[in-house]
Amino acid sequence: MWAALAGGVGGAKLARGLMALTPVNIADLRIIVNTGDDFTLHGLHISPDIDTVLYTLGGIANPQTGWGIAGDTTKVLDQLTTLGEDPWFWLGDRDLATHLLRTRALSAGDGLAKVTADLARRLGIPAWVRIMPMSDDVVSTEIQTPDGWLPFQEYFVRRRHADPVSDVRFAGLARARPLPAALEAMRSAEVVVFCPSNPIVSIGPILALPGMRDALAHRQAGRRRIAVSPIIQGQALKGPADRMLEGLGYEVSALGVARLYVGLVDDFVLDSADADLAPAVAQLGMRPHVLPTIMTDAAASLALAQAIAQVVQA
Amino acid sequence: MWAALAGGVGGAKLARGLMALTPVNIADLRIIVNTGDDFTLHGLHISPDIDTVLYTLGGIANPQTGWGIAGDTTKVLDQLTTLGEDPWFWLGDRDLATHLLRTRALSAGDGLAKVTADLARRLGIPAWVRIMPMSDDVVSTEIQTPDGWLPFQEYFVRRRHADPVSDVRFAGLARARPLPAALEAMRSAEVVVFCPSNPIVSIGPILALPGMRDALAHRQAGRRRIAVSPIIQGQALKGPADRMLEGLGYEVSALGVARLYVGLVDDFVLDSADADLAPAVAQLGMRPHVLPTIMTDAAASLALAQAIAQVVQA
To answer: CATH no. for residue A276?
Structure first.
């Protein structure tokens, strides 16, 4: 069994590649997804990272944006705007169907894990790929800016991640428990993959859940834990990871990311453009691997997943 | 102040005509709308009759169906269907915006009356036309058929009102109170108009609320209560009113409707095609008025409203 830790677009792209290795090369793939970005809009429970993973693995993601559904329309959002609502958050019509089903099921008392598994089934994702939230409990990422603490989507979407970030916190963490299946995967997976997602607000909340770091530290023969850098040549491919690292005082490079993962991973994948950082990564006690990591299409996702499989089997 | 009692399409059409007489001829128009058909779908609170009145008075109703929004699409419904949901109830995309705003506001603790007034404002309906639910409480119309008691929309939409109807009941009535503004309108309106809506399941629930019949019986100088028959030549223009009357043992004619309103109205409007029923209506103690009542367009709605205004001012 393999476990993959994922946020949104970058995580979903690598997860898509890993899915392509199932069930032959990977018999059982568990994708543990960040839910710190979840929020409520127009009474609907929205799980942006889970949706991105669901749509990408379900083959319906918008290839231009990486999130949302290909060819989706915004009839409902347009009417909400006509009725006087502020259209600050993009809501596709087909996308809304997901939010409606999720919100209905949560209201009926189902947990987010059950709801997510049900949506994956409806999207035709195979049974041996289990997409799961990091927790059934609510953990809400908040961002400290010069204007104070902001809910994540307020910072990320409404204010277009333009504010300097001085701190990040995860509200609700004290009362939250990781999903048992996620904790178990973290503890017993032969391979744990840190997808190229934001280390602070995508991988960060998953690792912050009580027990997750201990589970990850569990030693077993042949177990490999491998991270892929979301930072290439000092820049995030997507999103504010670079500015966030800078604001929090970390080095804005793949090496800076590797330092955040010291003691957590055995292997670290650098993009080919960052080959010069390999010796410094090795000095952190990780095996560096230099690979093409930019996943422009499904073939590139598969190629990176295959390269990772070769690394961990070597 | 005038009060109008309305269900869906027929009621909305006459309400539109009455609105056209405001604020000059009618300074203050209160439209009391049936909510016995309200139900929850995909977690959304849907008020079909209120929506039909809102859309008709807001000038956005689909002129072909009389309900829904003109030119609306079903992107969300199509995706829900793709995801395995049964698309038994039509859900337009623009329509959904209404349901989302209503559900969100109700969840936040607002009453249906406040939510309805807010939606009317957003649709640009003038302040002197107050569309209001009959109650802020839940009253649910149920239909007895050979297959047992059915929720109204189950009977009406899912089973296409094809079942014989042997009884009708309003669940929740014992705990429900009429909306104070509706009760007040019923008691003190100079003119009370029973729109050409189904007497059993549209006007019926409004009158069944405690205190409504007493308020309607309140006598004041010059006060006129006038009903328009929804049955023409023994048939309902729309919906199952004819078969419902038959199933419940009433005469299926405008006269049958008039008999249901004995003691409640002073004047009764028959369609021109039913002029021969005028003497029998007069024998019930009402003034019969023979008028063209088929409201094919806004001009026809206005003409009927003007004719009613002439009747009550005579």
So the answer is: 3.40.50.10680
